[in-house]
Write a structure and sequence with these properties.
This protein is an all-alpha fold. 58% of the residues lie in helices and 0% in strands.
Length: 244
């Protein structure tokens, strides 16, 4: 790889691991798997070279024979959890259904590995799996009549919205449970004086801050679909303008 290529990409794009990186029963793959386990269990702050080494039963210094830094591990972790589901290889019935399916798969990944949103952004997507996600999203827009730059803009907009929604969901945590939402709604009912906050009072009285009574407990979480629908409505308007 080029010397300016971000650290870690030589392992992802360079083929087989060099023999010097697979000694002593260690390998980048084992190190990354242990790091992902730590992040899934305890969050990104729990990922350190010392804790990874402890989990694997090796010294911290032994890890540096296989990976150069924690930053490299983070990049490898992102690619490891970002395998693209096979169903996204199938051509979508239309662009909107395709993007909705793409977003649902992304959301599943982001919820399964909520630490992803805490990884510092050091540049645009560059790993094989990240670029595969981008490719599949662009493919859904192939027959829309949009320019390639517009397709790329739509994918960036949708991906950014999902990432921010996942960050909010992870930050809220149990605050979006049924009990917490009910408590918040009750609190608003006491605080939202109709004279001082008339619009908010109307929303509270209309149940805008409650879950519908028929919402199952496992579904009582932050819902990204309302915002996504509004974004896709805008994309539909753009497509209509370009092709009408």
């Amino acid at each position: 790889m080029d010397a300016k290529t971000p650290t870690g990409l030589d392992l992802l794009w360079g083929g087989d691991e060099p023999p010097s990186r697979t000694r002593q029963g260690l390998s980048p793959a084992r190190i990354v798997a242990a790091a992902v386990e730590l992040a899934d269990e305890r969050g990104l702050d729990a990922v350190s070279m010392a804790r990874i080494a402890e989990r694997l039963g090796f010294t911290t210094m032994s890890l540096y024979r296989h990976v150069r830094s924690k930053e490299e591990i983070l990049l490898l972790m992102l690619d490891a959890v970002a395998a693209v589901p096979a169903e996204l290889d199938e051509p979508p019935a239309d662009w909107r259904l395709g993007l909705e399916r793409w977003c649902a798969a992304q959301w599943t990944m982001l919820r399964a590995h909520s630490w992803i949103v805490d990884v510092p952004i050091s540049g645009p997507p560059v790993t094989p799996n990240q670029l595969t996600w981008t490719d599949r999203a662009l493919a859904t827009l192939e027959d829309t009549g949009l320019a390639e730059s517009e397709k790329a803009g739509v994918v960036l907009l949708v991906a950014t919205y999902l990432h921010n929604s996942a960050r909010l969901s992870a930050g809220l945590g149990n605050a979006v449970s049924g009990e917490s939402v009910a408590a918040y709604s009750a609190l608003l009912g006491r605080l939202a004086d109709a004279e001082r906050f008339p619009a908010l009072r109307r929303a509270v009285d209309a149940g805008a801050y409650d879950y519908p009574t028929d919402t199952a407990a496992e579904d009582r979480r932050l819902d990204y679909t309302f915002g996504l629908d509004r974004i896709l409505d805008g994309v539909a308007a753009l497509i209509s303008q370009k092709t009408g």
